[in-house]
Amino acid sequence: MAGMLSSAVKAIKAQGQNRLASAIFSGFKAMVWSFGRTFYVLWLEMTGFIFAVFTFISASTLVREIRAHGWVTDKHRFWASVGFTAVSGWFTLASFVRAKKTRKK
Q1: CB 65 within 8 A of CB 77
Q2: How do the pLDDT tens digits run along the chain, 105 residues long?
Q3: Are 29 and 73 in contact (CB under 8 A)?
Q4: Cα separation of 71 and 73, whole Å?
């Protein structure tokens, strides 16, 4: 009888320790997930800002090319400016939209 009671007490203690370990692990996992998502949103916003700067610089170059009729004098430079402005603008937009979607989760 004492042996059965002793093993029952040990099982209850082991179950309590297992529940405590599970709760600690669950809390740690939630904290790491939250920090990771926050840093990911920050990363997306920073890359979006960098691409916004690239877009601004390339757009100003494109305006300068348009005023100088660059599509006639230097076609390659003009179309490179158009392409780079479009791609940088797309990356800026996509980065901020993805950051907003990630933040909402």
Answers
A1: yes
A2: 555 556 655 666 666 667 777 888 889 889 999 999 999 999 999 999 999 999 999 999 999 999 988 888 888 999 999 999 999 999 999 999 999 999 886
A3: no
A4: 6
The range of the structural domain enclosing residue 78 comes to: 2-104
Asked whether the beta carbons of 25 and 90 are under 8 A apart, the reply is: no
DSSP secondary structure letter of residue 15: H
Is 62 in contact with 85 (CB distance < 8 Å)? yes
- Nearest-CA neighbor of 52 among 78, 82, 90? 90
Do 96 and 42 contact (CB within 8 A), yes or no? no
